[in-house]
Amino acid sequence: QVHVVESGGGLVQAGGSLRLSCAVSGALFSLNTGTWSRQVPGKQRELVATISSGGTTTYADSAKGRFAISKDNARNEVYLQMNSLKPEDTAVYYCNIRGDTAPIFGGYWGQGTQVTVSS
Question: For residue range 39-62, what is the model confidence (pLDDT) as tens digits?
């Protein structure tokens, strides 16, 4: 059974930074892709960043230059460093682990962590 737990969300002023963490049991980031997505009520979930089993990263245009995804295979954790935060980054952020070739929104999800950016 795969269990995904996010942490690190909170309230931050615009221009500030947050670092989200994702711990997984039952599956390995060394063999799978880790992703961060976000969702605002009433809107579709948006894929923010991915990191493959081999460490290749991709970012949504909205995240490029401000966010950085990384992982620690020894700890089996994935991180999202978010800098220069904007009010429009406010959302619930979800961590996901899936196979490298699985559908974008497949795999296993955590319960999410709220990020609120005040103006």
Answer: 999 999 999 999 999 999 999 999
